[in-house]
Write a structure and sequence with these properties.
Chains A, B: One of its GO terms (biological process) is thiamine diphosphate biosynthetic process. Chains A, B: It catalyses: thiamine phosphate + ATP = thiamine diphosphate + ADP. Chains A, B: InterPro entries: PurM-like_C_dom (IPR010918), PurM-like_C_sf (IPR036676), PurM-like_N (IPR016188), PurM-like_N_sf (IPR036921), ThiL-like (IPR006283). The structure is a homodimer of 319-residue chains. Chain A is α+β, with helices and mostly antiparallel strands and 319 residues long. Chain A folds into 2 domains: 131 residues, 2-Layer Sandwich (60s Ribosomal Protein L30, Chain: A), CATH 3.30.1330.10; 159 residues, PurM-like C-terminal domain (Phosphoribosyl-aminoimidazole Synthetase, Chain A, domain 2), CATH 3.90.650.10. In chain A, 34% of the residues lie in helices and 24% in strands. In chain A, the strands form 2 sheets. In chain A, strands 7-9-6-10-8-11 form a 6-stranded mixed β-sheet, with helices on both faces. Chain A has a 4-stranded mixed β-sheet with strand order 2-5-3-4. The two termini of chain A are 39 Å apart. At the A-B interface, helix 1, strand 1, strand 2, helix 2 and strand 3 of A face helix 1, strand 1, strand 2, helix 2 and strand 3 of B.
Chain lengths: 319, 319
């Protein structure tokens, strides 16, 4: 099977929203008049962003999910995406599974594959996603203000990292618990509905890809503020709660791969936050507050500051 | 140097056109009201799309050039791009050169870097480029009609492939000639001005990345037509003309990496084509005509058909 047959067979579907889809030099999108276009791009490599044993369907899902999560963090409505794919060989079984997972999530968000590129090489997936947002309504990292509450979505922060540690052999879980956490790692659900519902309510937002401490740190730096979090308020699963306290702490604070939204909102908007979360069918928890003093403090149940050194994942400085 | 310092140091510049540039979850573009957005994405891998010895500045240039070439083939005006980059390590010398080549070409086309991703891994570059085109004015592959002339831009088709063969050791050139052809391979100039000038004149267009026969074949298939080309009309350099006839033929017909535009236009529009080319300061040559009968025929100087078997490059079926 050649490159063009591969594209035709696995990645060409009737165009619904785009003016022109897969198969020309460019795709043509027609954003709704007056809307801004939100754009994000992520490159996923085997061995770094996913393990070689991941099910192809989950890989297809996750490759798009991490990009939709960026749209969610901006409060943008998904529109379309491009897919650039390097494959060591043409493996129809792999491609069928990958396309199934990719398109199931794409369809769930009415987000259309409009173009891309395929080449032979070590497995690599680069997706660029496009969404729409009315001018001035995007959720940014720079809007957190002292006194704002800090919120996070989801009920199982850190489960993805726990699964990664099991895959690495540093932790052990029984089969069913491992499957639950592995699902969090390999099949994250981007919080698109919540991001849309928080427009006009949240003062800042970010999606959690590298870990809460590091990602929230970007918001604090961009906003010129600090924050204090309550460790016990961080939502975690019963599976993670069964782990030693230092494992729980590392997973929730610096785990990575959560793809939840962390966001800020004024205390007077707390009811509107919970209403938005209910409308989006997404759990949220208030986990701290924004301070004028720079830096991020995390307090344990006794009000003592948790030691620093829980850094976030960095592709070039983390082992 | 960490991931975020790398982005700040080499890839963050003041935003000129985008509503929001590098540094948030998404970039925000504001296309001019009523314009369609043209999108294209290319993934370049070391060892497949470029040699490890390429100068970083040229690699930065070419990574964007191949994407701008897709906008050119659509007649779209460049707007911005994202860059996803996998690097084996942080090498400031490499990154400075890469960024210099990238931004020099970007600035020449007022095309802004708006976001992206960096990760550690085997050197890989994925650029997604965005351009604007008025609705209904994009140059497509599907518009060629029997009787149209076939045109190609440039004056040195096949030089890029000749340089590749020298790098591979199958051909030899003296130093100065090799440098000239190597420049064609590593520093192609996307025909953006020509693509814009051909709107409303050309009936179809494509950019030549995989070789004239294969790329023109996509146009013929999409248009439901065939074509006859005159081998002697294909523009080539004095350097290529000094090569044996079979080498010339392979390089111009199936060379790849030309990044010229092949396009069709009615014979009555020939003057408008040459005026558009002059306005864009880009040489063009009439190389054949579109036929109703499917298939692509190439005739030599005696009117004999050149043997088939000159296939185009395919990442999965070409050795």
């Amino acid at each position: 099977m050649g490159e063009f047959e591969l594209i035709r067979r696995f990645f060409t579907r009737p165009t619904r929203r785009a003016a022109l889809g897969v198969g020309d030099d460019c795709a043509l999108l027609a954003p709704a008049p007056g809307m801004q276009l939100a754009v994000s791009s992520d490159l996923l490599l085997e061995g770094r962003h996913f393990v070689s044993t991941v099910a192809p369907e989950r890989l297809g899902h996750k490759a798009l999910a991490v990009n939709l999560s960026d749209l969610a963090a901006c409060g943008a409505a998904p529109l379309g995406f491009t897919l650039a794919l390097a494959l060591p060989q043409v493996d129809a079984g792999f491609l069928e599974g990958f396309a199934r997972g990719l398109f199931a999530l794409a369809d769930a968000h009415d987000c259309e594959l409009v173009g891309g590129d395929t080449t032979r090489g070590p497995l690599a997936i680069c997706i660029t996603v496009f969404g729409e947002v009315p001018p001035g309504r995007a959720l940014l990292r720079s809007g957190a203000r002292p006194g704002d509450d800090v919120w996070v979505s989801g009920s199982s922060l850190g489960d993805a990292r726990l699964a990664l540690e099991v895959l690495r052999g540093t932790r052990a879980l029984d089969g069913s618990d491992f499957e639950t956490t592995r699902r969090a790692l390999e099949r994250p659900m981007p919080r698109v509905a919540l991001g849309l519902a928080l427009r006009g309510i949240a003062t800042s937002a970010i999606d959690l890809s590298d870990g809460l401490v590091g990602d929230l740190g970007h918001v604090l730096a961009a906003s010129g503020v600090g924050a204090t979090l309550e460790l016990d308020a961080l939502p975690r699963s019963a599976i993670l709660r069964a782990q030693p306290p230092e494992v729980q702490r590392a997973c929730v604070l610096a785990g990575g791969d959560d793809y939840e939204l962390a966001f800020s909102a004024p205390p007077r908007a707390a009811d509107r936050v919970t209403e938005a979360a209910a409308a989006a069918a997404t759990p949220v928890a208030r986990i701290g507050r924004v301070d004028a003093a720079p830096g991020l403090r995390v307090l344990d149940g006794d009000g003592h500051e948790v030691a620093a050194g829980l850094r976030s994942f960095d592709h070039f400085t983390t082992a």
